[in-house]
Structure formats: C-alpha cells, structure tokens
C-alpha cells in the first residue's frame, strides 16, 4: 500500500490527508479492509434491523 498525501484548504487553513492505494497485493489489501471494518464496527453504534 502506498500513502500519497493530498492537500486542501478549509477556512484558509492548509490541511493534508493520506490516500490509501493498493500496491497489487490483494490478500494484504483485503486484510486491511477487514481490520478497518472491525474498527468501524467497534466505534459505531449498532443500527437495529428494520
């Protein structure tokens, strides 16, 4: 995975963020996706089924 940085301006302040780009290793990419999903599930409240 590579992490190129992008800049943007909000209220005249320069800010940066990283873009996550795959490097071609699909197995590692899927592992990272699953880690991020688990982190989101842990931080977000459960939504009841309709």
Question: Order of helices and strands, N to C?
Answer: EEH
Average pLDDT taken over every residue: 79
SS class = alpha+beta
Specify the oligomeric state: single chain
| Widest β-sheet, arrangement of strands | 1-2
Number of helices: 1
Strand content: 15-25%
Radius of gyration: 16 Å
Q: What share of residues is helical?
A: 25-40%
How many domain regions? Answer: 1
- The total beta strand count reads 2
| Gross morphology | flat
Largest sheet: 2 strands, antiparallel
- Which ranges are low-confidence, i.e. pLDDT below 50, for 5 or more consecutive residues? none
Distance between the termini: 38 Å
Short summary:
This protein is 36% helix and 24% strand.
Topology:
Elements: E1 5-10, E2 13-18, H1 26-43
Note down, in words, how this protein is organized.
With 50 residues, this protein is α+β, with helices and mostly antiparallel strands. It has one domain. The protein has one helix and two strands, in the order ββα. It has a two-stranded antiparallel sheet with strand order 1-2. A hairpin with a 2-residue loop joins strand 1 and strand 2. The longest helix has 18 residues.
